[in-house]
Amino acid sequence: MAGPPASTLEPVTADRPRSVLREVSFLRLWAGSTASGLATWAMPFILGLAVLHSAITPTALGLVLAVRTVGFLIAVPVGGVLADRWSRRSVVLWSSLAAAVATPVLAMSLGRSVALMAVAGAVIGAGQGACRPAFQALTAEVVRPGRRQQANAAMTLAVRVTTLAGPALAALLATVLDVPTLLLGSGVLWLAAALLPPRGKPAPAPASAPAPDGAERTGFAAEFADGVREARRHPWFLGGLVALAAVIATGYSATGVVLPMVSRDRYGTEAVLATAVTAYTAGALLGALLIARWRPRSRGWAALAALACYGFAPLSLWLPGPVALVVVAYAVAGVGIELFNVPWFTAIQREVEPRRLARVSSLDFMVSYGLAPVGLALIAPAVDAFGPGPVLGLCTLVCFLVPAGAALVPTARHFSRGGARSTPEAVA
Fold first, then answer.
1. Terminal CA-to-CA distance of the chain, rounded, Å?
2. What is the pLDDT of residues 144-199, one digit of tens each?
3. 142, 26 in Cβ contact below 8 A?
4. How many other CB atoms are there within 10 angstroms of residue 276's CB atom?
5. In sequence order, what DSSP letters do the residues of 367-379 get, joined into one string?
6. What average pLDDT does the segment 412-428 reach?
7. Residues 6+ apart with CB under 8 A from 302
8. Which of 31, 96, 118, 141 could form a disulfide with 194 if both were Cys (CB 3.0 to 4.6 A apart)?
């Protein structure tokens, strides 16, 4: 039997089911997730304004952001276990409420108590970490399988728009509001994230899923280990996670460290830094719009090829060339990252056994967020020791070769253990 075409753009017809954007339950989920993302982004930016206004010292800023990251990384696996053990909606509610309550504490302690700021920052980070896997699992409960790729694209599109427009909006608000008031505003966003999402309908476990582990609850470590075992059942997930970790730890970190240096030393202007970052975000917006409707036949291979496109960013910094080369490379990297992210999230929601979905998602977030600061910490000394050229060259090769290696993993071609035609999305 002939297979489907290599790729399709879904046609819009009069009898086609309405868009996921017209479903109230998804719009509530989307609004809550967007509010949490905006609050997550806003905190370091607003605290940066506090440094500019001499309300806190740079050391205090670094401490608060560091403990926020620690709180996040500790809470991600905890949130994954809790979201699989109880209601995903309840985990979103209580974790977001914790961040909402801690934010005014952070605002009131500005310039008064660094210790209290640190405690509040850790609680906010924990709230952020616990709600991330719960939001991922809740999406699978709220959105029907055939529409999840569109839903995930809408989620990531909101993140990119926020990243692009947020700094200008915050800077505008800072002309009329002080820093504590801006922080209180981010607390309101966390409150919205807690209250807006709907209660999902858990998907039934497939008939082939393993039986429950027993009548009584096991301990946290055992439940998390059960999630790890579920992840190991999906070779495409392990291969993709290794590829994602490699790109984040090398390409993402290298460009974060070296781009400001290249902008200053090679081109003599900081405008290259701002333009490249803007091009990356604009590319990601384009990628999210495209992947909302594009269904490649070999979706796993297409996603991994798109992830490898991040290698063009360090490559453009490694090779001498005009500014336009850097800008185009960053735009291509932005498109690629979303052409990977959306199918990746959708595949996790589709393939992972529903009772273990939040725990597997927590592994993804632990790697994605956890390796970023590690890479940044290691890349800077490497640049000092060997110079930017060798470091950028190595990072470029890693970004290109590791996703290519992940594509050779069994089941990676379709991000599915059951083949291309085993899911509603494959035949949409």
1. 18
2. 988 999 999 999 888 888 777 776 777 788 788 888 999 999 999 999 999 999 98
3. yes
4. 26
5. HHHHHHHHHHHHH
6. 65
7. 7, 296, 339, 343
8. 96
Length of the chain (residues)? 428
Provide the sign of the torsion angle of the four alpha carbons 220, 226, 229, 230, taken in this order. Answer: negative
| CA dihedral sign, ordered 395, 400, 404, 406 | positive
Burial string for 295-317 (b: 16+ CB within 10 Å, else e) reads: bbbbbbbbbbbbbbbbbbbbbbb
CA 58 to chain centre: 27
Q: pLDDT band for position 17 (50/70/90)? A: low
Distance CA 339, CA 336 (A): 5
Q: Is the pTM of this model over 0.90?
A: no
Pair 174, 182: CB distance under 8 Å: yes
Closest CA to 356 of 194, 151, 193, 209: 209
Nearest one of 121, 2, 5, 8 to 65, comparing CA atoms: 121
Q: Could you tell me if 171 and 109 are in contact, meaning their C-beta atoms sit under 8 angstroms apart?
A: no
Cα torsion 111, 116, 120, 122 to 10°: value is 110
pLDDT, one tens digit per residue, over 98-146 is 999 999 999 999 988 999 999 999 999 999 999 999 999 999 999 998 8
- Tell me how many degrees the CA angle 96-35-247 measures, rounded to the nearest 5: 90
Q: Is the dihedral of CA 310, 311, 317, 321 positive or negative?
A: negative
- Residue 163 sits at the vertex; the CA angle it makes with 31 and 322, to the nearest 5 degrees, is 150
**In the structure encoding, which two tokens stand for residue 76, read together?**
């991600």
Q: How far apart, in Å, are the Cα atoms of 109 and each of 152, 180, 183, 186, 397?
A: 37, 9, 11, 15, 46
What's the pLDDT score for residue 287?
Answer: 94
